[in-house]
Design brief:
Residues 10-63 form the DUF397 domain. By secondary structure, this protein is of the alpha+beta class. The protein has one domain. The protein contains one helix and four strands. The longest helix has 12 residues, at 52-63. The termini are far apart.
């Protein structure tokens, strides 16, 4: 597997992140097949990479209230 350079991508804060600085994630829309996700409180740690289809399913489940605690 080849390394993916995330040093120049554009990050956006999740609309589900709260405003007081806790529970914040950032995602990038710069890749068509992958969704990089990172903790906005610790942006220098490695990002997690998700398949775009899997990420879309996860977001749909969160929005629909299908996940416990969501």
């Amino acid at each position: 597997m080849r390394a993916i350079d995330l040093s120049t991508i554009t990050w956006r804060k999740s609309s589900y992140s709260n405003q007081d600085g806790g529970a914040c994630i950032e995602v990038s829309d710069d890749f068509p097949a992958l969704v990089p996700v990172r903790d906005s409180k610790d942006p220098h740690r490695p990002a997690l990479l998700f398949d775009a289809t899997a990420w879309s399913s996860f977001v749909t489940a969160v929005k629909g209230g299908a996940l416990p605690g969501a």
